[in-house]
What we know:
- By secondary structure, the protein is α/β, with parallel strands linked by helices.
- The protein has one domain: Alpha/Beta hydrolase fold, catalytic domain (Rossmann fold, 3-Layer(aba) Sandwich).
- Helix content is 31%, strand content 15%.
- The longest helix has 23 residues.
- Homodimer.
- It holds the Pfam family BD-FAE.
- Catalyzes the hydrolysis of N-formyl-L-kynurenine to L-kynurenine, the second step in the kynurenine pathway of tryptophan degradation. Kynurenine may be further oxidized to nicotinic acid, NAD(H) and NADP(H). Required for elimination of toxic metabolites.
Amino acid sequence: xxxxxxxxxxxxxxxxxxxxxxxxxxxxxxxxxxxxxxxxxxxxxxxxxxxxxxxxxxxxxxxxxxxxxxxxxxxxxxxxxxxxxxxxxxxxxxxxxxxxxxxxxxxxxxxxxxxxxxxxxxxxxxxxxxxxxxxxxxxxxxxxxxxxxxxxxxxxxxxxxxxxxxxxxxxxxxxxxxxxxxxxxxxxxxxxxxxxxxxxxxxxxxxxxxxxxxxxxxxxxxxxxxxxxxxxxxxxxxxxxxxxxxxxxxxxxxxxxxxxxxxxxxxxxxxxxxxxxxxxxxxxxxxxxxxxxxxxxxxxxxxxxxxxxxxxxxxxxxxxxxxxxxxxxxxxxxxxxxxxxxxxxxxxxxxxxxxxxxxxxxxxxxxxxxxxxxxxxxxxxxx
Length: 383
């Protein structure tokens, strides 16, 4: 395991990063933990499990990156622009630490590997349920090492939102997919945020005629579209397990997303209305700006977390504590109407760039389009 290090000078100097392995089978079975430096000795606070378990007002923010289940250039480091924004937000004090999960990837036509020469532990050829099993193993590691319990906000972008929603589908579902019970030693999260998520796989392919959509879905889940339906959160019949313990279910999109269409959030919101229990559903449609990958590249993902989820967490916890002053009821939350549509944070200007569409569609842009970003720039996706 690499030593704990400060981040690069371009990143927030108040953060330390620790990369840990949660699995031994593949090099991508790692997660990155980001925590503040102690003002006294510049050492991480992450080891202070007792501080977290006794401080019920703080939560973890756990991030699952996107990349169409296959892009090796999209990694756990993609959370950095977001963490830097959140550490300077008004709700910084609500966050205990950040964790960002890497997981095994499917093959990518723009990054070919020779199976006869590439070591197995670096070969990217993951098939369902490999991706979701790794997410489960990472959450189990965090539970075992840091006792995160259910006090975390699970955030996913693009296919990361798919994986995060599959966690909410419950342990019985996950085990039926092939995830062993030893990888299911974690609590479902209280809080969820899906950003530019894919929630109905077949619908995504049907709405987008470009063959790359069918290609990456087939590489990740095989050609049996019955399996696609079974793993699609918007088609899952019963979220009862999350409904018993979850508090917030939020879905955010950008009006400028060129890769994932609005039908995805529409069908997921329709399904979410049937969750029942004390789950507050937040419709954050078009609350963000920027193309699909600009959402995380610029750190604007923090706006969905800060203005919505974390603020709402504070409201819900306050109402819960006031309604049950002697004993906190973890199974239900009073029904409240959060005026999310009226809440906005200024969106910082973003650099004019071309989004890395090649995660979905390798070769979609010409080299000239990428080089227009800056002199001498070449797309890593070019064949």
